[in-house]
Amino acid sequence: MTAAIPIDVPYPEDVFLKSSPRQSNIVRGFGASAAILLAVSMIILLASCASVQTAKPKSLGASVRSINYSGKEVALSVVDPLNRSNHGGGDSLNPYSMGGTICCFGIPPEWHPGYQVIVEYNFYPDQTWHKQLLDVPPYPEGIAGDIGLTMHEDGRAEAVVSNFGPTRPEWPGRVKALPVQSGEYTEIIKNKWLANQKGILKKMEDGLLDGTERSQEQVARLKSSIEHTKEQIRQMEEAMPFPEKPGN
Fold first, then answer.
1. Whole-number Å distance between alpha carbons of 4 and 239
2. Could you read off the pLDDT of 75-113 as tens digits, one per residue?
3. Coiled-coil regions in this chain (predicted)?
4. Is residue 134 within 8 Å of residue 117, measured between CB atoms?
């Protein structure tokens, strides 16, 4: 005869599925601690991301551009008076011309009162370098841009930071225009060109009569070059000079 099994005796699997009140408290306590730890970690992570996103750089790398409004050949460079390792430029400019873009010079991301730079320069062929400590005017519309170095006819240098070019009304420089050659300088260039072309013409005319044996084709080409050069000289001698550039 088989013995009856008491109904209040748990099956073996019930022993493993059920937990004591103490075990339940431990599990609940562990879950709460894990949730708190996760929340704290997320707060720290979000705070770190926010600080990275809002952090502003102390310096921006700006391209250096140079403008020469003077009638002298000049080389221009810029130096930070507070950190001489921060320097840039060095472009050599012909009279009344603009240079290319040279990288780089560190500027503040935002303009602040008292911001100054040193512009160093020398006039060719004099090898003496001169310096001017200059106040940089406020950035137009508060936007940091390239740093522009300028030499004026009166010998005063200038440094501006601008996201706009010299032909724009926002340009903070003294002259809101591109360099224009003066009438005097135009005449100097014109006379140099004429002297060079007349020297070439004389050599070709002398060559035509020096007795050198040449083919008919060579003689024809030489005569054509002589006539072409004479016409260029005539046109240059009759050309009107460029107007005087506006005053600075």
1. 131
2. 999 999 999 999 999 989 999 999 989 989 999 999 999
3. 212-239
4. yes
